[in-house]
Amino acid sequence: MTVLDRIRTTDTATNLRAGVLVLAAVAIAGTAVELATERHWNGVVQLVPWFALAALAASWVLTAWRPRPASLSAARVLAALVLLASLYGIWEHLESNLNAGWLDAVYSAGWESLSAGTRWWYAITKTVGAAPPLAPGILAQAALLVMLSTWRHPAMTDLDRCPQTGDGVRPPG
Q1: pLDDT in the model for residue 168
Q2: How many structural domains comprise the chain?
Q3: Which domain holds residue 82?
Q4: How far from 171 is each of 44, 156, 163, 167, CA to CA, in Å?
Q5: Exposed, middle or buried, 136 (CB in 10 Å: 0-12/13-18/19+)?
Q6: CA-to-CA distance for 69 and 5, rounded, in angstroms?
Q7: pTM of the predicted structure, to 2 decimals
Q8: What does the pLDDT look like over 99-120, one tens digit per residue?
Q9: What secondary structure does DSSP assign to 72-128, as a single string?
Q10: 39 lies in some domain
């Protein structure tokens, strides 16, 4: 059976789920390459994304390879933890840039006189500091893709379905 034959004989949701998992895999691999090229391993805080990446890869494997209700639930938990780690990374990058503002050649003289909003804007836009504030967001994106691929997964049908109505929505009361 060729790939095209398989695509033609598989339902749309399964094909979309596979596509979402491919996007997540590309994000995971790309993030690993990016972290390695940036030599992002100096100190404990810089190791957090590596552990998050390992957890995300495990979450991907649990979802993509022989999914079962328990493995999909574990994948969701791991992906949620990676999402939190990503938010922590965004905060760390913003804080690093904010703390570097007074060292900036252009803004150091008047850094303290700038409004808090302006200083935060300069940190967010990387006008000051070297840390890319949105880079950790790729971990969140990949985690959300893995979580999306588990939504209404056929392996979870018995757990997700309401015994009274047979659909994914429980009746009130």
Answers
A1: 54
A2: 1
A3: 12-150
A4: 48, 19, 10, 10
A5: buried
A6: 28
A7: 0.81
A8: 999 999 999 899 999 999 999 9
A9: HHHHHHHHHHHHHHHHHHHHHHHHHHHHHGGG-TTTTTTGGGS-HHHHHHHHHTTSS
A10: yes
